[in-house]
Amino acid sequence: MRMIAESLASAELLDDDFDVFVVPGLEPRMTVLRNQLRPKLERFGHVLAPVLSEELGFPMHAHVARHARRKTNPPSDSWVAFSHDPRGYKKWPAYMAGVWHTHLYVQAGVIYESSYKAAWGRRLEQLGCSHLRELLPDQARVYGDYTKPGGELLQEMDDARLSELLTRVQTVKQADLLFGYELSRELAVSLDERGLLAWLTATALRLAPLYTLAMTSKE
């Protein structure tokens, strides 16, 4: 715990970190994001990558979002993603830990650029809705579009809606499918560094069985 705490020495989230996403304009927001929030996302990556590597049994690499494709619209959130590929994460199942204006989140699954999309949806259909809920209890959320804030609570979602999302990720080119947990801005800023690290680590580990299913879905 001492090594982990030291590596997160500057990772505590403040209100100003969440307010990055209300700075008007692409360049002004990117400047604040690079200077203020990105170093903390890099710290998240530095700490979580070895935790995930040990849990999953293979190296996991951190990739902090650069938002390099943006030419006009400023980003509404930012994140550090994790995959087994040191070159990138988008074409693989991935973890994502990030910040919106309103909350902190950790997610696992596939985004629309992944070649695992269809196999992932089929694997979850085979698993079944009830078993998926057992795998992710409590306040787990489902995200059909990772570019939008907030997800639907899995435990409140009926089988028809869940099945719809599992079909959509197989058939719609721009569909994502991730599962995860959120921590409100108010709770996040109330945590000290150790508490924040504890939440991020515990949440990432809760998603490990799901991530393993995603990684083996094409076998």
What is shown here, in short?
The chain is an alpha+beta fold. 46% of the residues lie in helices and 18% in strands.
Considering the protein shown, what is the CATH homologous superfamily? Protein of unknown function DUF1054
CATH architecture call: 2-Layer Sandwich
CATH class placement: Alpha Beta
Count of discrete domains: 1
Strand residues, percent: 15-25%
Distance between the termini: 36 Å
CATH topology: BirA Bifunctional Protein, domain 2
Q: Write the H/E string, N to C.
A: HHHEEEEHHEEHEHHH
Provide the structure class.
alpha+beta
Widest sheet: strand ordering? 1-2-3-4-7-5-6
Q: What would the principal axes of the Cα set say about the shape?
A: globular
Major pleated sheet = 7 strands, antiparallel
Rg result = 17 Å
Tell me about this structure.
The protein has helices at 2-7, 15-18, 26-56, 117-127, 129-135, 159-171, 185-190, 193-206, 208-215, and strands at 61-64, 77-83, 94-100, 103-110, 141-143, 152-153, 177-184. The protein has 9 helices and 7 strands, in the order H-H-H-E-E-E-E-H-H-E-E-H-E-H-H-H. It is α+β, with helices and mostly antiparallel strands. The radius of gyration is 17 Å and the shape is globular. It has a 7-stranded antiparallel beta sheet. It has one domain (2-215): BirA Bifunctional Protein, domain 2 (2-Layer Sandwich), CATH 3.30.930.
